Every structure is written in C-alpha cells, then in structure tokens.
C-alpha cells in the first residue's frame, strides 16, 4: 500500500534543473523572499509562460516539483533524485528489508 506522504525536493536541485532547461529564458529569473519566478521562451501569452514556485525551509513540495519537471522535460532526473536521495519510488518509500 502506498504512503500518502510525498517527499519534498531540494531547492538547489530543482532550481538548477529549471535554470538548465532550454525552455527557460535565463534573463527573466526573479526572486522575492522564498518565491521564484521564471519565464519560458516563446510567444504564447505571459500567463501560459510564467513559472512561479515557493520554497519552504529550502524545499519545494512534490506537486510543484513534478509539475515543473513535466512542463520543462526533466521528469527522469527528478525520479532518479527522489529514488537516490529520498528513497521514494513508484508511489511509495523503498523498504530496506
């Protein structure tokens, strides 16, 4: 049975992957307190290109991290991070038994 507690993702990991994404315009990064904003490249309306995240205690929640990973194309890297750093795979925590 899966655990309903989802792991958080390190601020350093997620921001690094977002900054490396070719879909992001690096000149648009802004930070206000613990909130970050980025703009995707392209000519779509701004509300469709804006990415906003908020970290709590240096971590982003699972839903924010996974939605940005899908949008920006680094879901495989996120899943590897969760498995290696958090012991989380296939919807549950890995047991060492």
Question: How would you summarize this macromolecular structure in one to three sentences?
Answer:
This protein has 97 residues and is of the alpha+beta class. 38% of the residues lie in helices and 29% in strands. The chain has one domain.
Descriptive labels:
97 residues, alpha+beta, three-stranded antiparallel beta sheet, two-stranded antiparallel sheet
Report on this model:
This protein is of the alpha+beta class. The chain has one domain. Helix content is 38%, strand content 29%. Strands 2-3-4 form a three-stranded antiparallel β-sheet. Strands 1-5 form a two-stranded antiparallel sheet. Strands 6-7 form a two-stranded antiparallel ribbon. It starts with 8 loop residues before the first strand and ends with a strand. The model has no long low-confidence stretch (mean pLDDT 91).
How many separate domains?
1
Instruction: State the end-to-end distance.
Output: 16 Å
Helical content band = 25-40%
Strand percent estimate: 25-35%
Order of helices and strands: EHEEHEEHHEE
Major sheet strand order? 2-3-4
Q: What's the number of helices?
A: 4
Low-confidence stretches: none
Choose one word for the global shape. Answer: globular
DSSP strand tally? 7
- Mean model confidence by pLDDT: 91
Query: What is the C-alpha radius of gyration, as a whole number of Å?
Result: 14 Å
Structural class: alpha+beta
Largest sheet properties: 3 strands, antiparallel
